[in-house]
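so i finally got all the pieces together for this one. its two components total, 228 residues if u count the protein bits. some of the lines might not be protein, just check the labels. i wanna see the whole assembly predicted at once instead of chain by chain like last time, that was a mess tbh
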Amino acid sequence: EAQVTQNPRYLITVTGKKLTVTCSQNMNHEYMSWYRQDPGLGLRQIYYSMNVEVTDKGDVPEGYKVSRKEKRNFPLILESPSPNQTSLYFCASSLFRGDETQYFGPGTRLLVL
Amino acid sequence: AQKVTQAQTEISVVEKEDVTLDCVYETRDTTYYLFWYKQPPSGELVFLIRRNSFDEQNEISGRYSWNFQKSTSSFNFTITASQVVDSAVYFCALSDPNKDDKIIFGKGTRLHILP
């Protein structure tokens, strides 16, 4: 089954404790991205990657890092989480840049205390 | 700059009524894609439709229909004979395949279908 998976689905952590949210797709997609969803703000793009070893900032990259060492994986790293990073995070992938449809993961709810 | 406006923050209708969700977009590009996504209470994002800027033909899929009008920069979504299971947040989105493929989302419309 074609899908985008994220782990963990739910996470409670404390300020400053490094964490990683994993994202994996099994569709051989080149393009992957991370979004955060906040009430009243919709979804905003954090980072995106057009292929292995190619990443770039989205609209709200501050406080986040990503890596793309393999085509299927695109982890989101919070080196020193802060309460304002409490949010719902979505990973997405598409076949290539310009492909019209992005497939979204199930989301990760993060609470930073 | 690209922008998507969903002016309706929250809508409540009684089951079996028809309901239209409005979406107005802004872009200077001639090539772009428009999307609708559904986010049920469980939280996942469900892709509903994608329309490219060169295809103004309206589309119907069961109880769902979409009205794309370039003249008014609108891409409205209508649910006919609504059901409780349609209760969700609906997002309209815009992307330009020639500009980093970023999707610009509207802020969403929360739809309540009352039994």
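The longest strand of chain B covers residues 88-95.
Chain B touches chain A at residues 33, 37, 43-45, 47, 50, 52, 91, 93, 95, 97-98, 100-103, 105-108 (CB under 8 Å).
anyway lmk what u think
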